[in-house]
């Protein structure tokens, strides 16, 4: 995503339209449609049509065999009274905390410290090595991460042994099996998975900031915290924005780690909409109901993305003084 | 996302003369200690994995997860390798991720050529649509895809997954390349047109060579993202012949045959390819990103 962020930060330049005769230009551009053809056809086949299909199925009752039976908005009505559905969205809010809020805030601090303190007062190599350690979890497939953590947090797993070893054996616990601790445990794993992404993006962003700004502030006697608030934060706002958006979307869609860690359990304590939809589709064979869950999730994601982009656009406009 | 760890292009400014006294003393060492501690905590799960991947089941049950292995036991690794037929899974993952990477880049390039250079009408909306498609939850597509794949005989084939991810990844690629090509120097295009080059020639002789570094980055992104994908392969690929590495590992997880050492061995070898690509591609990436940024 490093690239997307560069792109998002630089809106395409408004190239002046060449003063070519109008008719000729339109004729030339029309030929470009041919290049869009394969992509558009594939897009309609794999994304457009299935999306419409899901929307249609959400208005039916269907087990996947025979013909779907039209039920109108029944599925959505049922969703409103479904405790599991509400629980899954409550858990999504916690996922937003674990995958967006904590990693972004911690990532900002870590990146600033790594770049500003460790990169400068020690060797840049030290900063690069530490950054790699934070980034490593991002490299491994999330399902692999989920399986390893699932074993670590088992009653007989490594974490409890570690507690024993340091004399905290009284805290031994079935971390993922107890509805009271399952969600916090999953959140901790997600922070571990996610933290490297903001650290790396923010460190790259900090290289973009003019060092003279910091030097001037230092001469003026600003301490580290002052500089962080007055220079670092505003300067890397575009990257912060991209990180927040991509992490938010990822948190709303999270599936693999939940599947590998808890399958939504125990007792729906860690269920999330995407796992709930998967389970409803393929385990309960309630295709209509699963489609309704997916449709609601899709709408939420579209709205959230829309709000994000709108806020960014208007804050950019404000900056330019319009 | 797996790919931004550029090698030490890091900090630009050399350490400046000691102007600020508050950083000279113990405080900077305390900061270093704290951050290092954090980094070590991040690495602990990997250490657990390594420690237990080469331990015999007897050793594990007597000594527990933290004990040092009494022997270098590789049978867990070998059991996993043969029970899941790991080489086949590796091939499946590589085939799917590799095909998606190449096809996805080609489709992205064609789309972006029409949108960024051709500036066809309504292109902002089209680009927005592609971007949105990339954000959709896969649950919103999966059932119709699964159903149709079953009808047309593509269910449980690698081809189905390749087609689906080619489209999903190229949705992002189109968005990215269309913005990059929006700033493509018009003079180059006009010069080529004056020489009588057609659109097809311009695409491959002018646009493609200029874009190669960015395309390389996209190729790697697509490869790694597809390699790590889970939901769609989980639904589409149901038997040993077709499954990818993450799906194979996850479907063995419920199996009570998998003892802790085997689980760790399995996780460890599933992690190796990801780290390998990462190291191999790191250089390309660093170059690609810089080259892309210079435009």
UniProtKB/TrEMBL annotation, chain A:
InterPro entries: ABC_transporter_permease, MetI-like, MetI-like_sf. It comes from Micromonospora tarensis. It is a multi-pass membrane protein. This is Sugar ABC transporter permease. Residues 1-24 are annotated as: Disordered. It is found in: Cell membrane. Keywords: Cell membrane, Membrane, Transmembrane, Transmembrane helix, Transport. Belongs to the binding-protein-dependent transport system permease family.
Automatic annotation (TrEMBL), chain B:
Pfam families: BPD_transp_1. It comes from the Bacteria. It comes from Micromonospora tarensis. The keyword Membrane applies. The chain crosses the membrane at residues 29-51, 90-112, 124-147, 159-181, 202-227, 265-281. CDD domains: TM_PBP2. It is a multi-pass membrane protein. Belongs to the binding-protein-dependent transport system permease family. It is found in: Cell membrane. This is Carbohydrate ABC transporter permease. Residues 90-281 form the ABC transmembrane type-1 domain. Gene3D superfamilies: MetI-like. InterPro entries: MetI-like, MetI-like_sf.
């Amino acid at each position: 995503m490093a690239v997307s962020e560069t792109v998002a930060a630089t809106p395409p330049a408004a190239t002046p339209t060449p003063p070519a005769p109008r008719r000729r230009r339109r004729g030339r551009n029309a030929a470009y449609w041919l290049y869009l053809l394969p992509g558009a056809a594939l897009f309609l086949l794999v994304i457009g049509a299935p999306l419409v299909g899901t929307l249609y199925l959400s208005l039916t009752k269907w087990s996947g065999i025979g013909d779907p039976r039209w039920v109108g908005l029944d599925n959505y009505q049922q969703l409103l009274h479904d405790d599991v559905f509400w629980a899954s969205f409550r858990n999504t809010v916690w996922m937003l905390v674990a995958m967006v809020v904590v990693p972004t805030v911690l990532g900002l601090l870590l990146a600033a410290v790594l770049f500003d303190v460790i990169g400068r007062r020690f060797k840049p190599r030290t900063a690069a090595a530490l950054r790699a350690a934070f980034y490593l979890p991002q490299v491994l497939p999330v399902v692999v991460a989920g399986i390893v953590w699932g074993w670590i947090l088992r009653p007989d797993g490594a974490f409890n042994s570690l507690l024993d070893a340091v004399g905290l054996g009284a805290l031994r616990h079935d971390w993922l099996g107890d509805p009271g601790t399952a969600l916090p445990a999953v959140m901790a794993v997600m922070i571990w998975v996610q933290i490297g992404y903001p650290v790396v993006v923010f460190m790259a962003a900090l290289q973009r900031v003019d060092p003279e700004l910091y030097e001037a502030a230092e001469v003026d006697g600003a301490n580290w915290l002052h500089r962080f608030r007055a220079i670092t934060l505003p300067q890397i706002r575009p990257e912060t924005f991209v990180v927040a958006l991509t992490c938010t979307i990822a948190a709303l869609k999270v599936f693999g780690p939940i599947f590998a860690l808890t399958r939504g359990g125990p007792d729906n304590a860690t269920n999330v909409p995407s796992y709930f939809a998967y389970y409803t589709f393929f385990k309960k064979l309630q295709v209509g109901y699963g489609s309704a869950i997916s449709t609601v999730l899709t709408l939420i994601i579209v709205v959230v993305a829309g709000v994000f982009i709108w806020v960014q656009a208007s804050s950019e406009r404000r900056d330019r003084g319009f | 996302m797996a790919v931004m760890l550029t090698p030490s292009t890091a900090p630009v400014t050399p350490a400046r003369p000691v102007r600020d006294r508050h950083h000279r003393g113990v405080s900077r060492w305390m900061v270093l200690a704290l951050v290092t501690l954090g980094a070590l905590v991040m690495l602990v799960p990997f250490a657990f994995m390594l420690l237990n991947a080469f331990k015999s089941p007897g050793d594990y049950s007597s000594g527990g997860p933290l004990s040092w292995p009494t022997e270098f036991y590789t049978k867990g690794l070998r059991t996993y390798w043969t029970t899941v037929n790991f080489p086949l899974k590796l091939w499946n993952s590589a085939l799917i991720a590799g095909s998606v990477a190449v096809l996805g880049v080609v489709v992205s390039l064609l789309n972006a050529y029409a949108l960024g250079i051709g500036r066809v009408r309504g292109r902002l909306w089209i680009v927005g649509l592609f971007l949105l498609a990339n954000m959709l939850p896969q649950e919103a597509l999966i059932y119709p895809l699964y159903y149709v794949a079953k009808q047309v005989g593509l269910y449980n084939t690698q081809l189905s997954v390749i087609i689906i991810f080619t489209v999903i990844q190229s949705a992002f690629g189109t968005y990215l390349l269309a913005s990059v090509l929006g700033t493509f120097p018009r003079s180059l295009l006009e010069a080529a047109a004056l020489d009588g080059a057609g659109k097809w020639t311009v695409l491959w002789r002018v646009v493609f060579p200029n874009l190669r570094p960015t395309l390389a980055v996209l190729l790697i992104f697509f490869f790694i993202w597809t390699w790590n994908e889970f939901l769609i392969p989980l639904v589409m690929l149901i038997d040993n012949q077709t499954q990818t590495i993450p799906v194979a590992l996850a479907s063995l997880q419920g199996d009570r045959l998998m003892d802790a050492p085997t689980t760790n061995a399995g996780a460890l070898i599933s992690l190796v390819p990801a780290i390998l690509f990462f190291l191999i591609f790191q250089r390309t990436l660093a170059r690609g990103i810089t080259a892309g940024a210079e435009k």
